[in-house]
Design goal:
There is one protein chain. The chain is of the alpha/beta class. It has 2 domains: about 1-145, VC0802-like; about 150-330, Rossmann fold (3-Layer(aba) Sandwich). The chain is about 25% helix and about 30% strand. The chain is built from 9 helices and 14 strands. The strands form 2 sheets. A 7-stranded mixed β-sheet has the order 2-3-1-4-7-6-5. It has a 7-stranded mixed β-sheet with strand order 10-9-8-11-12-14-13. Strand 5 (about 90-95), helix 3 and strand 6 form a beta-alpha-beta unit. Helix 5 packs across helix 6 (about 195-205). It starts with a strand and ends with a strand.
Length: about 325
């Protein structure tokens, strides 16, 4: 069965990588059929409900649908519109890129073709929704579920009880958590947890979260933030990652956005030394064959990656003088 993921388009590489990481984590066998800007089409050996449930975890996707067809625009009239479903329906068309098509015309045309088979159109109280994506090609899918992206806005850092400048948007934090392949019930650690943004997003998808920081104020703030988000099952501690000894191969996933060289937050270490020593500790704490996401500024070098393979890199421009590099690393041994 083919499924269409309508990606958010707010980053060039992260939305697709997030989808693929979740598919792999859930053990869903798939192959990529088509990729175009905000459109990802896969063929998967999966139940519709298993694909629909991905919207409970995804952050950088708008919606998921069961693909009915995709084609060039001059082939739209040739498609079969005799779909089996109960109740009324509605057609909505979304344009991506600079495509010049009249969405209202396509809505009327496709709606009329489906209605020709005795189906009832209801634009307000429909029971079935068909979504067309107009890009370089045209895609029509039966809508399965939408990602509740508005919920991420409610968790933005400045709305939490404890706020630290520079905190990531919850959608980005959720995406980075998803890139590790963490599943509900597994253990995730952030050894530089700050206000707990990664821990919140991991906890909301059912992971058991552990957060450490050398700043006791940050740990107290993270506790307030986690409770504010409705997460009660967590482990926090005022600890220096370089001195952690009790978690050998304990965690299924590790995410880390370490400080960028402020002496008060690095205990006087140069940031390169902190990063390389932290990577060594993360390697020891992570279970074999599992993933860590480590985030550093563009231009900084990591020397100690023995035992890790960097499987993905994503570049996130923060402002003119700072671009973050999100490294997804797999522990091979």
């Amino acid at each position: 069965m083919k499924f269409l993921f309508f990606l958010s388009g707010e980053h060039p590489t992260l939305p697709q990588s997030e989808v693929e990481a979740l598919l792999k984590a859930q053990g869903i066998c798939y192959s990529i059929v088509e990729i175009e800007q905000q459109v990802l089409v896969i063929e998967a050996e999966a139940e519709i409900e298993d694909i629909r449930n991905l919207t409970e975890k995804l952050a950088l996707t708008h919606s998921i649908g069961r693909l009915l067809f995709f084609c060039d625009y001059d082939e739209i009239e040739e498609q079969n519109y005799n779909y089996k479903f109960k109740g009324s329906f509605c057609v909505r068309i979304w344009r991506v890129g600079n495509v010049r098509v009249k969405a209202s015309y396509l809505e009327r045309y496709i709606g009329g073709r489906i209605a020709d088979y005795g189906k009832k159109v209801d634009l307000k109280k429909h029971e079935n929704l068909f979504i067309g994506i107009a890009g370089k090609k045209f895609y029509l899918s039966e809508h399965l579920a939408s990602v509740p992206r508005g919920e991420f806005e409610k968790r933005r850092a400045h709305l939490r009880p404890y706020y630290r400048p520079g905190a990531m948007h919850p959608r980005l934090s959720r995406t980075i958590v998803n890139l590790t392949g963490i599943k509900a019930g597994e253990f995730l650690c952030d050894p530089f947890c700050g206000g707990g943004g990664f821990l919140i997003e991991a906890g909301l998808i059912g992971a058991k979260v552990y957060g450490f920081d050398i700043d006791d104020k940050a740990i107290r703030g993270a506790e307030r933030n986690l409770k504010y988000a409705g997460i009660d099952d967590f482990n926090l501690g005022v600890k220096d990652i370089l001195k952690l000894e009790d978690y050998n191969e304990y965690f299924h996933a590790i995410v880390s956005d370490p400080p960028y060289g402020i002496s008060s937050s690095t205990r006087g270490l140069k940031k390169e030394e902190l990063y390389n020593r932290a990577i060594d500790k993360i390697y020891k704490m992570l279970k074999p064959q599992r993933y860590a996401c480590f985030i550093i500024p563009l231009g900084d070098e990591l020397e100690n990656l023995e035992g890790f393979k960097v499987v993905e890199k994503h570049y996130l421009r923060v402002h003119r003088s700072l671009t973050r590099v999100i490294m997804v690393m797999k522990k091979w041994k």
